[in-house]
């Protein structure tokens, strides 16, 4: 679980409730982070899925943390009032995952992309909270790609990485590997792989061989 100060919770309780249309423990002075909705009264199919799935629950709690931080950032892009509106639209779009053939995979993509957006737009959301479950976005220059690739990591069980370059994005899930950390996934075009071991990073997308990638500074 993540912790915030009691004052921080009180200041943001109303805005978080307005943006998510739910108020889990909003009246409680407890500083413990909860899911963005009350699992005891969850009615939507996706909310029920999140409440019974440890990985999705971790992602929801972490996204709530990032969202609350972004609301305190006067320099966020977009500004906090627009962040609140975007969060409401995101929550509504997430519910559409219930109609997808693979609802959990859809929800994971939704959380990974939103976390990337919040961390990309807010320096406060990127602060080095020791209890954070997200990292990035980090930038990589890969041979064979004409644009920088941004990577945002979700350190859940299993882990997730959201990759974005040019007009393309993909969400990959961590798989067991004897060396380094590997993420794999696929879409309608084929299979993808992202492997990292220290400073060595390899990326493969459909129709290409392994590309060597090097980290580059952001900003």
Descriptive report:
With 219 residues, the protein is of the alpha+beta class. It has 2 domains: 6-121, no CATH class; 134-216, Beta Barrel (Lipocalin). It has 5 helices and 8 strands. Strands 1-2-3-4-5-6-7-8 form an 8-stranded antiparallel β-barrel. Helix 2 (45-52) crosses helix 3 (54-71) and helix 4 (80-95) runs antiparallel to helix 5. It is globular. The two termini are 31 Å apart. The relative contact order is 0.11.
Set out the fold topology.
Layout: H1 6-20, H2 45-52, H3 54-71, H4 80-95, H5 103-121, E1 134-142, E2 149-154, E3 160-165, E4 168-175, E5 181-187, E6 190-197, E7 200-204, E8 211-216
Antiparallel strand pairs: 1-2, 1-8, 2-3, 3-4, 4-5, 5-6, 6-7, 7-8
In short:
The protein has helices at 6-20, 45-52, 54-71, 80-95, 103-121; strands spanning 134-142, 149-154, 160-165, 168-175, 181-187, 190-197, 200-204, 211-216.
Q: What fraction of residues sit in β-strands?
A: 25-35%
Strand segment count: 8
Number of helices: 5
Order of adjacent strands in the largest pleated sheet: 1-2-3-4-5-6-7-8
